[in-house]
Amino acid sequence: MRKFLPKLAYLLATCAGAGLSPVWPGTAGAGVGVAFAAVLIPASPWLIVLAYMALFAVGVWASSHVVSHTRTEDPQIVVIDETFGTAATLSM
pLDDT of 14-25, one tens digit each? Predict the structure, then answer.
């Protein structure tokens, strides 16, 4: 379990590797946000709110872990914030 959680944090913080893109990783993360919002289009408003609350909580946990591990204030590979921002904006 000790080795699994850091890998999970990196997977989530980079949005399944979108943040590892050699060019414009934030834009790649925003693309994941577009897909996330598209999946939620037919969902009920309550489910959408719960999904974004979960994404926010997971994003805080994962990005905090990656920031502490890399000892960088704003690692370029962390794109879950771009994903959340894009998806939340498109869902309004």
Answer: 999 999 999 999
18 closest CA partner among 34, 3, 37, 31: 31
Q: Kindly give the interhelix angle for 80-90 and 25-40, rounded to the nearest 10 degrees.
A: 40
- Residues ≥6 apart with Cβ < 8 Å to 73: 67
Residue 68 burial (C-beta neighbours within 10 Å; 0-12, 13-18, 19+): exposed
Residue 42: strand, helix, or coil: coil
Mean pLDDT by 10 residues, the chain (92 residues): 86 95 95 96 94 96 94 93 95 86
